[in-house]
From TrEMBL:
Domain of life per record: Bacteria
MF terms (GO), sorted A to Z: transmembrane transporter activity
InterPro entries referenced in this protein's UniProt entry, alphabetically: MFS (IPR011701), MFS_dom (IPR020846), MFS_trans_sf (IPR036259)
Name the UniProt record assigns to this protein: Putative transporter, MFS family
Keyword Transmembrane: yes
PANTHER family hit by this protein: INTEGRAL MEMBRANE EFFLUX PROTEIN-RELATED, MAJOR FACILITATOR SUPERFAMILY ASSOCIATED DOMAIN-CONTAINING PROTEIN
GO cellular component terms attached to this protein's record: plasma membrane
Residue stretches of biased makeup (Basic residues): 416-428
Transmembrane feature ranges: 12-39, 45-68, 88-108, 154-187, 217-239, 251-269, 281-299, 305-327, 339-358, 370-389
Coiled-coil segments on the chain, per record: none
Biased composition (Basic and acidic residues): 401-415
Main location: membrane
Protein topology in the membrane: Multi-pass membrane protein
Organism: Phaeobacter porticola
Length: 435
C-alpha cells in the first residue's frame, strides 16, 4: 500500500491531507470546550447546531464550489481554501457569542465543501493506474481512521500543558502546512472545452451522477452507510454513559473499536479489489452494516457493544472505500471535480437525514427502536442498491469497454482520435457531452 508514496506529487498531497485532518481533529476538541465555556449546559445544543450547519454547507455549497473550480487552477483553489480555513481557526479563540461560532463554522465548512471534493478528484489524475489509485483510496481511509483515534489523544496531551484555545493554533498550523505542501507540487487541472453557464456547471455533477446507473446504486448505498454511521456517531456517548453507566474512557474505547474495524477493512481492500470488481465488496459492506443495526438491540453489554462497533466499522470501510473507483471511471477528467462534489453533497444529504433520526429516535423511543428503524432504512437502501446494480445490463455493469459509434462526429474529432480513429470504437462508459 505504501508504494504509492513513491510518487512525489501524491506523497505531498497525502501529507497535506494528514496535516489538515490533524488540524481538524484538534479543532473538534477545542470547539467542544469553547461551546462549554460560552454556553455551559447548553453546549450540546450549540454543537448539534454546528453539526447541522456543517451538513447544510456541505450539501448546498459543494456543487457551487465545483462549478467555480472549473474556472480556476486546482492548486490555486486548494491553497486558497486552506488559507481561508486557517484564518477561521485563528479567529475562533476570540469569539464570545454563540452566533459568532455559527458564522465561523459555516465559513470553515464552506471552504471544506470546496476543498474536499476538489482534492479527491485530483488524486485519480495524479495516479492514473487503477491499482495505484485503489491503494491511495485505502491509504486515505486509514488516514481518516487514524486521525479519529490520534487527534483526541494529541489534544488530551496538549491540554495537560496548555489551555484549550492553543489547540486552535495547532489547527492553523495544520491548514497552513497543508497549503505549503499543495503549492510545492504541480497539480493537473483538466478543463472542459465546452462553454457553459454557472447554473449548468453547478448542476452538471448531479445530472451526470443521476444519469449513470452505477452511481444511482451508489446513492442507495450511501443511505446504508449514513444509517449505520449516524447510530455510532450520535449515540455512542449516550449509550455508554447513560444506558451502561460507564465513563469517558469507555466512550473512547467504543469509538476506537469502530475506527479499528474500519482500518482493518482498509488494509484488506487493496488485495481484494485486485481480484474482484468494486460492487461485491461494497454490497457485502452494506449487508454487514444492515445486519449489525438489526442485531443492535442484542448489544446490551459494553463488550458486545464494542464488538458490534468494530463490525460496523469494518462494514463502513468496505462499503465506502471503493467509492472513488466508481466515480473515477464514471467521468472524463474535466468532469471529475463536479462528480466528486455531487457524491460529497448527496452522501452528506443522507447524513443530514439520519443524524437527527438517530438522535431523536434514540432519545424519544429508546436505542433498541433506533437500531431497528435505522436498520430497516438501511435494508431498504441495500435492496435498492442491489436492484439498481442488478438491472444495469451493460457489460459488467458499465465497467468494461463498450463498442459504439458516433455517426454525427467528423472523422478527425479528438474523441475518435483518442480511441483508434475508426467509426466503431470502445471505451468504458461515462456520462459526458458525447455519451
Amino acid at each position: 500500500m505504501l508504494s504509492v508514496l513513491a510518487n512525489r506529487t501524491y506523497r505531498h498531497l497525502f501529507a497535506a491531507q494528514v496535516l489538515a485532518l490533524v488540524g481538524t481533529g484538534l479543532a473538534t476538541v477545542a470547539l467542544g470546550l469553547l461551546a462549554w465555556q460560552i454556553a455551559g449546559a447548553g453546549a450540546g445544543v450549540v454543537l448539534g447546531t454546528a453539526l447541522a450547519i456543517k451538513m447544510v454547507a456541505y450539501v448546498g455549497l459543494a456543487p457551487i464550489a465545483a462549478a467555480l473550480a472549473d474556472r480556476l487552477p486546482r492548486r490555486t483553489m486548494l491553497v486558497s481554501l486552506d488559507i481561508i480555513r486557517a484564518c477561521v481557526a485563528l479567529a475562533l479563540p476570540f469569539v464570545s457569542e454563540v452566533w459568532q461560532i455559527y458564522c465561523l463554522i459555516f465559513l470553515m465548512q464552506a471552504a471544506s465543501a470546496g476543498f474536499t471534493p476538489t482534492f479527491q478528484a485530483t488524486i485519480p489524475d495524479v495516479l492514473p493506474d487503477e491499482a495505484q489509485y485503489t491503494r491511495a483510496l485505502s491509504l486515505s481511509r486509514l488516514a481518516y481512521d487514524l486521525e479519529s483515534l490520534l487527534s483526541p489523544m494529541l489534544a488530551a496531551a496538549l491540554l495537560t500543558i496548555v489551555s484549550f484555545p492553543v489547540l486552535f493554533g495547532g489547527t492553523v498550523i495544520g491548514f497552513l502546512a497543508s497549503a505549503l505542501l499543495v503549492v510545492s507540487v504541480s497539480i493537473p487541472s483538466p478543463k472542459s472545452t465546452k462553454p457553459s453557464s454557472i447554473w449548468d456547471r453547478t448542476t452538471r455533477g448531479i445530472r451526470l451522477y443521476l444519469a449513470t446507473p452505477r452511481l444511482r446504486g451508489l446513492l442507495a448505498l450511501n443511505i446504508v452507510v449514513a444509517s449505520a454511521s449516524s447510530m455510532v456517531i450520535v449515540n455512542t456517548v449516550v449509550m455508554v454513559k447513560g444506558r451502561l453507566q460507564l465513563a469517558e474512557p469507555q466512550v473512547a474505547i467504543a469509538l476506537a473499536a469502530f475506527g479499528g474495524g474500519s482500518m482493518g477493512a482498509a488494509l484488506l481492500l487493496p488485495r481484494v479489489l485486485d481480484h474482484l470488481p468494486d460492487r461485491p465488496p461494497m454490497l457485502a459492506g452494506g449487508a454487514i452494516l444492515t445486519l449489525g443495526l438489526l442485531l443492535g438491540p442484542l448489544a446490551n453489554s459494553f463488550l458486545l457493544l464494542t464488538i458490534l462497533w468494530a463490525v460496523l466499522g469494518f462494514g463502513f470501510s468496505l462499503a465506502l472505500t471503493p467509492t472513488g473507483r466508481l466515480l473515477r471511471r464514471s467521468a472524463v477528467p474535466a468532469d471529475r471535480p463536479t462528480l466528486f462534489a455531487a457524491q460529497f453533497a448527496l452522501s452528506h444529504a443522507c447524513w443530514l437525514v439520519t443524524y437527527p433520526l438517530a438522535g431523536q429516535i434514540g432519545a424519544q423511543a429508546g436505542f433498541d427502536t433506533a437500531f431497528l428503524l435505522l436498520g430497516a432504512l438501511a435494508l431498504c437502501g441495500l435492496l435498492l442498491a442491489a436492484k439498481l446494480w442488478r438491472s444495469d445490463q451493460t457489460p459488467t455493469a458499465l465497467d468494461e469497454a463498450i463498442p459504439h459509434e458516433h455517426p454525427d462526429l467528423p472523422a478527425d474529432h479528438p474523441h475518435l482520435a483518442a480511441h483508434g480513429h475508426g467509426p466503431l470504437h470502445r471505451h468504458p462508459a461515462v456520462a459526458d457531452d458525447l455519451h
